[in-house]
Amino acid sequence: MLKISIIYYTRTKNTENMAYLIREGIKDRDIEVICERVENVGIDILLESHGIIVGSPTYFGLMSSQIKEFFDNSIKVYGKLEGKVGGAFTSCKTGGGETALKSIIDAMFVHGMIVRGYCKGNHYGPIAIGSPDEIIHKECIKLGDTVASLVKKLFV
């Protein structure tokens, strides 16, 4: 069975709320979805997944240290994620979300993952300023749908 993992870090629940919205965009597609905080998963989840969506709060325009540490530890599976589908999302207090998303996507590119550009809204993925509003709600669902569609095209 196909599998997509949504891995995130959160302190205020904004990023977590986004993760569950993204999960909604994937459900009912014969795809197993794992939605977990980064501190509850190991690197092996990357090997088991066809799609990997990572979310983080924005800290100084970058991903959180917890997500960065996860990517740093992913060196153990370097060369084994090529061709897997990636996606990213973030929440922030005032700004810097696009550069935070780029930092996540850059890590995915180093692994040879496929990350599709985002067509509407934010260019790199959903960015919530504070709690996800109705627009971000729709963007999160769309991200889940987009990653699920690409996973189905590539792995079925």
Shape: globular
Number of helices: 5
Kindly report the average pLDDT value.
96
Order of helices and strands: EHEHEHEHEEH
How much is the radius of gyration in Å?
14 Å
Number of DSSP E strands: 6
Distance between the termini: 9 Å
Q: How large a portion of the residues is in β-strands, by DSSP E? A: 15-25%
Give the helix/strand class. alpha/beta
> Share of helix among residues?
40-55%
What about the largest sheet?
6 strands, parallel
**Uncertain stretches of 5 or more adjacent residues:** none
Q: What's this, in brief?
A:
With 156 residues, the protein is α/β, with parallel strands linked by helices. The protein has helices at residues 14-26, 44-48, 65-73, 97-110, 134-155; strands spanning 2-8, 31-37, 51-57, 85-92, 114-115, 127-129.
Explain what you see.
The protein has 156 residues and is α/β, with parallel strands linked by helices. The chain is 40% helix and 22% strand. It contains five helices and six strands; from the N terminus they run βαβαβαβαββα. Strands 1, 2, 3, 4, 5 and 6 form a six-stranded parallel β-sheet that branches. The mean pLDDT is 96.
